[in-house]
Amino acid sequence: MFDKVLIANRGEIALRIHRACKDMGISTVAVHSTADSNAMHVRLADETVCIGPPAAVQSYLNAPAIISAAIVSGADAIHPGYGFLSENSQFAQMIEAHNLAFIGPSAEHISIMGDKVSAKKAVQDAGIPVVPGSDGAVESVEDGLAAAQQIGYPVIVKASGGGGGKGMKIAYTAEELRAAIPIAKSEAAVNFGNDVIYLEKYLQKPRHIEVQILADKFGSVVHLNERDCSLQRKHQKVLEEAPAPGLSEAERARIGKLCCDAVAKIGYHNAGTLEFLYEGGEFYFIEMNTRIQVEHPVTEMICGIDLVRESIRIAAGEAISFKQKNVRVNGHAIECRICAEHPETFVPSPGQIKSFHVPGGIGVRMDSALYAGYDVPPYYDSLAAKLIVHGSTREECLSRLRRALSELVIDGIDTTIPLHQALVENADIIAGEYDIHWLEKFVA
């Protein structure tokens, strides 16, 4: 097992990794920008290293500075968390080249799954169904029109190296597609340094279902059921729950086994999430995230398994500590992403936290690095806290979540707490009847 882990991230996920390491008896090193010198993970870590000014490109995206900090501090391994360099294959290669362990999958698998075209081919070859789409990348408008004629309208143009909705355009006609392709290529080039795009069939009312897996270096793969992440705004998840409402046990078993078999065939190891669009009883693969997910706590709450701990153990060369038969789903969990944004305009709201009160009681968990007096910086993602609630049933979970949201106090900045309070009172949400387009209409 590792003696010391450097945490190459910030905010709540950095604190989450620190806590897992301390539970395992592992020392931690927190790297930070000058804007995060008073961050909670920096205050609690065993050692700290400042790696640059506030701009992420000069600090949290500065791979040489992070690796230098690991070497100077004597760390054995680097945990990337999510975002920043977590899915950067070159970063993983650099870490391994300096005889450090990367707490995540191999650089090869990060590269394969980081490109949506190669990812689709890899999982399709491994037996997982994909959304009908173009046969690889679309090089020109003419290629796109020909592919769309085969697929059938509407289609969606996607950036091969992208995410978060950038480089993504919907076309209902050939005329719309002719205009969308050059715009999508341009956006992809600007945002990802890669203008490769591809086409997929645009599903009308799908749900976003994802399957959490763990795979070790001995060939063992387990799944920890699924999560529903359909409540999204501009392709960013807002609320997640597990298990997914409306799925049958047969469907759960089928997609779980498909994912395990495919991951084993690919040879992937560590934590990962396979994401699907689900419509009409069918699952269609869209991407694989080769890292811990923001929403991993809902899986932890229903399965009682520490995913961060397991990912550290796997990276250290140990086997998964349990078998598939040992995975038991208990009750229901929901996570609300509380962002430092205005709840209606979604304008970011950095500033000083005047007061911070965390809800409590059975089944209530708060993952956050906030504290009274902390200055939320304007330089990074607006995620400020994650409120996760568990109940024996979905109804109990929703009731407990309403109570927890009413107790949560974050004063000094605008937050999306009011949005979540409105969501958990909505009849569609209570019934579990929503799709990936639902929230966009709700907040319009």
Q: State the distance separating the first and last CA atoms.
A: 50 Å
Number of helices: 15
Mean pLDDT value = 96
| Low-pLDDT segments | none
Structural class: alpha+beta
> Helicity, in percent?
25-40%
Instruction: List the strand order in the largest sheet.
Output: 13-12-9-10-11-14-19-17
Shape: globular
Rg computed from alpha carbons, rounded to a whole number of angstroms: 21 Å
Look up the CATH topology of the largest domain: D-amino Acid Aminotransferase, Chain A, domain 1
The name of the CATH architecture of the largest domain is: 2-Layer Sandwich
**What is the name of the CATH class of the largest domain?**
Alpha Beta
Fraction of residues in β-strands: 25-35%
Question: What is the total number of structural domains?
Answer: 3
Q: Count of DSSP E strands? A: 20
Biggest beta-sheet profile: 8 strands, antiparallel
Give the name of the CATH superfamily of the largest domain: ATP-grasp fold, B domain
Question: Gist?
Answer:
The protein contains 15 helices and 20 strands. It is of the alpha+beta class. It has 3 domains: 4-103, Rossmann fold; 132-201, ATP-grasp fold, A domain (Dna Ligase, domain 1, 2-Layer Sandwich), CATH 3.30.1490.20; 207-442, 2-Layer Sandwich (D-amino Acid Aminotransferase, Chain A, domain 1), CATH 3.30.470.
